Amino acid sequence: MATPHHDHDSGEGLLSVEEAREKVLSQIEPLQPLELPLTDAYGCVLAKDVVAQRDLPEFASSAMDGYAVRSSEVRDATQASPVELRVVGRALIGQRPEGTVGGGEAFQIATGAPIPAGADTVVPIENVEVRGNVVRILFGTDEGKHIRRAGEDVKSGDALVNSGRRLQAPELALLATAGVWHPLVRPRARVVVLSTGDELIPPFQTPEFGQVRDSNAYSLFGAIREAGAAPILAGIVRDDVDSLKDVVLSHLGQADVLVSSGGVSVGERDVVKAAFYRRGEFDFFRVAMQPGMPQGFGHIEGKPYFGLPGNPVSVFVSFEVFIRPSLMKMMGRRNLFRPEITARLADDVTGPKGKTQFARVRVKRTTREGWVATPTGGRGSNLIATVSRANGLALIPPGVATARAGSDVRVILFRSMEE
Questions:
Q1: Are 85 and 69 in contact (CB under 8 A)?
Q2: Torsion angle in degrees (nearest 10) through CA of 270, 275, 280, 281
Q3: Are residue 192 and residue 326 in the same domain, yes or no?
Q4: How many helices (H) and strands (E) does the chain have?
Q5: Among the four residues 140, 167, 313, 369, which has the most C-beta atoms within 10 Å?
Q6: Same domain for 206 and 292?
């Protein structure tokens, strides 16, 4: 009996990329919020509106070194007709002013010091002359000049930061100013990464014939870290079902997500499939995409588990298509997907007609043609250098065997074009 022939360029019977991604994302839930210190909350998404409990700034202060006075007394002062005031006190930074500014009086004041009662303007020090305890105002100032008003930044009761905002440097500063030092946020997803395969060795070892240094763990480590999640490398697991189960179960307590590479195809040593195929919450499916056709996804004791192919480019592309948006959803991010642009191909790109091809390209902006995408090498899923040279993935849709030079394609940008 003849063995059935499978056309690897055909998409017949396979899930589309969109169907497969929706299949995964529909089973992903946001992580439960936690109160974290500001330094740990950086990069996380706020899970609850933060409302100002008091005005910011909390008190009026001086924006200049100078003299706090009454504007009604100095408004018309000129060099030809200066106004003389008696200095009756000093307003210092970090201290409540002692006394008030009465008629014919002034307080010496430092930048950032509270405005003493009775004063409503500050005359900069360069606009005065001082003679003993008398200050001569040479240039008049209007009411409120050089004063940082209480509540001019945020009023009590106003929203400081709204739920859904990712906390970055400005938000940390604002929350710290308001005394909110443990905001409620969606935490970083903890992602346990393991690599399967008898042929794998760590990068610091010298391979014998047939052995391969494990690159997938480090590709995933970088991609997970760049996504704002927390990678945990669990090492290499041999092609043994019991060993894989032991490693997975031993890491469940510290994981929000588990990711393995290798062992999800149709070979006899596909250990992930052998270990989890019969579990009701785990599924293996084939996607009409190149690279990255075989995929595994499910839950192990409630924790999402992604089983990726073993080839390094397949791992990178699978992460971008399935895992990264899942992590974004878990961490409460609004935008789950990478930015996309339309670019003109500099060279032909040939791929499987029945599948979506993710072609590695280098995108640059030119004066004459706008965005131009240049392929960085062959389509082989083992050619990791083609990813290192690229900054985007050009999407060649099903039905297109060859995307011709000069044609427009959608490009997913996975890093800055300056890098």
A1: yes
A2: -80
A3: yes
A4: 10, 29
A5: 313
A6: yes
Residue 203, preceding bond cis, omega within 30 degrees? Answer: no
Q: Say what the alpha-carbon torsion angle 52, 53, 59, 65 is, to the nearest 10 degrees.
A: -40
d(CA 270, CA 259): 15
> What is the mean pLDDT of the segment spanning 179-183?
96
Confidence class for position 264, pLDDT limits 50, 70, 90: confident
The model's pTM is 0.89
pLDDT of residue 268: 47
277 falls in which pLDDT band (50, 70, 90)? low
- Does any domain span residue 375? yes
With a pLDDT cut of 90, the percent of the chain lying above it is 87
Interatomic CA distance for residues 398 and 396, integer angstroms: 7
Confidence bin at 280 (pLDDT 50/70/90)? low
For residue 52, what are the domain limits?
Answer: 35-56+166-186
Task: Say what the pLDDT of residue 255 is.
Answer: 96
Angle at Cα 320 formed by Cα 311 and Cα 359, nearest 5°?
65
Contact status, residue 338 vs residue 320, Cβ threshold 8 Å: yes
List CB contacts of 357: < 8 A, sequence separation 6 or more. 289, 290, 349, 351, 379, 394, 395, 396
| Joined tokens for residue 101 | 């500014």
Do 326 and 214 lie in one domain? The reply is yes
Residue 369, number of CB atoms within 10 A of its CB: 12
Does the residue 182 lie in any domain? yes
- Whole-number Å distance between alpha carbons of 49 and 12: 48
Q: Total structural domains in the chain?
A: 4
* Domain-embedded: residue 154: no
pLDDT surpasses 60 at 66? yes
Q: Residue 4 domain-assigned?
A: no
